[in-house]
């Protein structure tokens, strides 16, 4: 279990994380969803013990998070937002080197390397130098590196940023399999579709605050399953949410401009709640 208790972090006069509390049960796939600058990466960095919080407490698997808690860090796998591969080493050599950093026995390193190369579909490029990999292959190798020591908890910071749709879907399948195998996953993302597809629960974050946390479907139900998207006087797009399709159709029948009736998405939920916060 991951527990975040009333945690805050400021940089000068900017409150990057503002009194955040969150519980992530074992084997949960939690998405931390919000725009750039919402505070997602700062929260992850505090959970990893890379930076200290100003207030509050963080507990992972019953242990307090701190810079010096090396036993806890061995239980965690990390996929950062920025590429962390040694570009002069091959795919296989990157995995072996990562295993050595965790002081794993060489026999176990070789076993885990073979398993991960197959799981990530990287066998055919195992001897390719990393600087010659595609963006999608680099992201898959970063996930493999994070799994080399078989951690129970995985933190991913924007794992599919900057890659094409095919590679993103392949990474989604990998993450789904990891969660099905019992891994606890916390993933930051600003891709709405990614959170909706992958996550058991989603925390909506903006301006350093988590303002809702629930399953994607429950969040959608809170504002209404059906959305009427329409133009007001052909100048501005408006959105109206309804519990039933009949109510949506009744509202749309009174609109004198273009409109669309569709299923509500997490993007609608985030947009709706973020607007309420601003107001």
UniProtKB/TrEMBL annotation:
GO terms for molecular function: ATP binding; ATP hydrolysis activity. This is ABC-2 type transport system ATP-binding protein. Belongs to the ABC transporter superfamily. SUPFAM superfamilies: P-loop containing nucleoside triphosphate hydrolases. The keyword Metal-binding does not apply. PANTHER family: ABC TRANSPORTER ATP-BINDING PROTEIN (PTHR42711), ABC TRANSPORTER ATP-BINDING PROTEIN NATA (PTHR42711:SF5). It comes from Paramaledivibacter caminithermalis (strain DSM 15212 / CIP 107654 / DViRD3). The keyword Transport applies. It comes from the Bacteria. Keywords: ATP-binding, Nucleotide-binding, Transport. Residues 2-232 form the ABC transporter domain.
């Amino acid at each position: 279990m991951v527990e975040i208790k009333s945690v805050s972090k400021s940089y000068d006069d900017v409150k990057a994380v503002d009194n955040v509390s969150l519980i992530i049960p074992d084997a949960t796939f939690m998405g931390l969803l919000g725009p750039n600058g919402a505070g997602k990466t700062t929260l992850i960095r505090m959970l990893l013990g890379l930076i200290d919080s100003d207030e509050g407490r963080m507990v992972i698997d019953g242990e307090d998070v701190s810079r010096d808690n090396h036993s806890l860090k061995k239980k965690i796998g990390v996929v950062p937002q920025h590429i962390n591969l040694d570009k002069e080493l091959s795919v296989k050599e990157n995995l072996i080197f990562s295993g050595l950093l965790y002081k794993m026995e060489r026999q176990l390193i070789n076993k885990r390397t073979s398993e991960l190369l197959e799981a990530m579909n990287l066998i055919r490029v195992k001897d390719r130098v990393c600087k010659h990999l595609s963006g999608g292959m680099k992201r898959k190798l970063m996930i493999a590196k994070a799994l080399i020591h078989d951690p129970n908890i995985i933190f991913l910071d924007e794992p599919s940023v900057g890659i094409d749709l095919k590679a993103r879907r392949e990474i989604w399948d990998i993450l789904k399999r990891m969660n099905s195998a019992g891994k606890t996953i916390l993933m930051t993302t600003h891709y709405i579709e990614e959170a909706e597809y992958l996550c058991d629960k989603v925390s909506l974050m903006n301006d350093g605050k988590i303002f809702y946390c629930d399953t994607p479907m429950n969040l959608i139900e809170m504002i209404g399953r059906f959305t009427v998207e329409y133009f007001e006087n052909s100048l501005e797009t408006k959105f109206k949410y309804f519990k039933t399709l009949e109510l949506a159709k009744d509202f749309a029948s009174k609109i004198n401009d273009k409109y669309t009736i569709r299923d509500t998405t997490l993007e609608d939920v985030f947009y709706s709640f973020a607007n309420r916060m601003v107001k």
